[in-house]
């Protein structure tokens, strides 16, 4: 009943299944490991982006607070100098520089360099 071609077919099929199972023993763990590392890359990328945005927000908030404080001190100093009774009336007043601090020094310095 069995012909020689059927025997060869069963031999080749068993070899194919054996090689497929053997290779899957190595491939599946490597695929799982690759998936885990890819997931960690995405998670750490998200965390990195979030902390960068938080740091930028904190920097700009602090920067604006410092600018307001410096401008208040400059205005107070100019008012004090103008109201000083001992000051010489012929003396030239301190120039008020409106651009003591620019709004965004990072952008303005890069624009000046271009």
TrEMBL record:
The chain crosses the membrane at residues 7-29, 35-60. Residues 77-98 are annotated as: Disordered. Keywords: Membrane, Sporulation, Transmembrane, Transmembrane helix. One of its GO terms (cellular component) is membrane. Its main location: membrane. It is found in: Membrane. The keyword Hydrolase does not apply. The keyword Transferase does not apply. GO terms for biological process: sporulation resulting in formation of a cellular spore. It is a multi-pass membrane protein. InterPro entries: Osw5. Involved in spore wall assembly. Belongs to the OSW5 family. This is Outer spore wall protein 5. It comes from Henningerozyma blattae (strain ATCC 34711 / CBS 6284 / DSM 70876 / NBRC 10599 / NRRL Y-10934 / UCD 77-7). The gene is TBLA0B09160.
């Amino acid at each position: 009943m069995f012909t020689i071609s059927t025997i060869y077919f069963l031999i080749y099929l068993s070899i194919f299944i054996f090689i497929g199972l053997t290779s899957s023993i190595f491939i599946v763990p490597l695929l799982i490991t690759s998936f885990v590392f890819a997931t960690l890359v995405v998670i750490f990328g998200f965390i990195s982006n979030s902390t960068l945005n938080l740091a930028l927000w904190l920097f700009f908030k602090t920067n604006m607070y410092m600018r307001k404080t410096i401008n208040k001190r400059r205005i107070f100093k100019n008012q004090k100098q103008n109201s000083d009774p001992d000051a010489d009336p012929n003396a030239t007043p301190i120039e008020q520089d409106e651009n003591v601090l620019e709004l965004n020094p990072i952008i303005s310095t890069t624009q000046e360099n271009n």
